[in-house]
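Notes taken during the Thursday session

The instructor put the following on the board and asked us to keep it in front of us for the whole hour. The protein is PLIN3 protein. We were told not to look anything up and to reason only from what is written here. First, the residues (144 in total):
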Amino acid sequence: SDLPLPQMEVFKQEFNQKLQEEQQKLHQMWLDWRRNCDKEIGDESSAGPEEMESLTLLLACRIIQQLQMTCSNIMFAVQSLLSSLEYKVKQCLGITKELFAAFSVANSLQDMSRSVTQSQRKLAVIQKDMDELLDYLKNNTPLS
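Then, after some discussion, the predicted structure tokens were revealed:
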């Protein structure tokens, strides 16, 4: 499931929106938990250390679960992006090998007249793919 480069911006926007929604949910969970803790601390029957520890662990588990889902989504997006880029680079390499083979056996330009139109189409594919790749590299900071 390769994502074309133009769709990556849409994916990035949707991902950022989802991330913001999840952060808001976590923040609300934290506020709810704090309110419950404040009520219980104000009560004479306040929660014991074991109950507080249990609530803390529950909150930590929820946060970690959200983080795990987010990391999984990021990993899928990166793999899809890398697969898409890898496919385009391999396609360009294959086309250049085909063109080299055709040109290397030609004895004259007349020998090439039949494949000039085909070569132009292939070069247009290379140019399009390389433009997309360079655009991606220009607009995205390396992760490492």
